[in-house]
């Protein structure tokens, strides 16, 4: 995945997992930064009501974590364990058709996501 310029923010881009991310981490690391936070932008076609992409072993966050740790093993990588980037409704929880949040199902998905990123 290549870097993608953000039109409303001149000079700012979404960083490609295999390109800009490692370049930026390298620059930050050389300046003394020892931790990074990764927030993926999930393509709409990968979003579902139950957010399965959140724990895809080949998902954006998972690949980004592996790439950073491979190149910079002592950098601490943080992620946001949340379903909203992967949910078609943009919600942090699994939502039943009548609008009720399914807490147990949501927690199950969040746990799977956390394990996939560990």
From TrEMBL:
The keyword Transmembrane helix does not apply. InterPro entries: ALAD, Aldolase_TIM. Pfam families: ALAD (PF00490). It is an enzyme of class 4 (lyase). It catalyses: 2 5-aminolevulinate = porphobilinogen + 2 H2O + H(+). Keywords: Heme biosynthesis, Lyase, Porphyrin biosynthesis. SUPFAM superfamilies: Aldolase. GO terms for molecular function: porphobilinogen synthase activity; zinc ion binding. Its EC number is 4.2.1.24. Pathway: Porphyrin-containing compound metabolism; protoporphyrin-IX biosynthesis; coproporphyrinogen-III from 5-aminolevulinate: step 1/4. Catalyzes an early step in the biosynthesis of tetrapyrroles. Binds two molecules of 5-aminolevulinate per subunit, each at a distinct site, and catalyzes their condensation to form porphobilinogen. This is porphobilinogen synthase. The lineage of its organism: Eukaryota, Sar, Alveolata, Ciliophora, Intramacronucleata.
């Amino acid at each position: 995945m290549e870097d993608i310029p953000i039109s409303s923010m001149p000079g700012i881009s979404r960083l490609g997992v295999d390109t800009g991310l490692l370049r930026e981490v390298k620059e930050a690391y050389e300046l003394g930064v020892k931790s990074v936070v990764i927030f993926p932008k999930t393509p709409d076609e990968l979003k579902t009501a139950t957010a399965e992409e959140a724990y895809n072993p080949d998902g954006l966050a998972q690949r980004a974590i592996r790439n950073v740790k491979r190149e910079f093993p002592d950098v601490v990588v943080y992620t946001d364990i949340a379903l909203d980037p992967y949910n078609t409704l943009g919600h942090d929880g699994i939502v039943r058709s009548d609008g009720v949040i399914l807490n147990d199902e949501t927690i199950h998905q969040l746990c799977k996501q956390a394990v996939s990123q560990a």
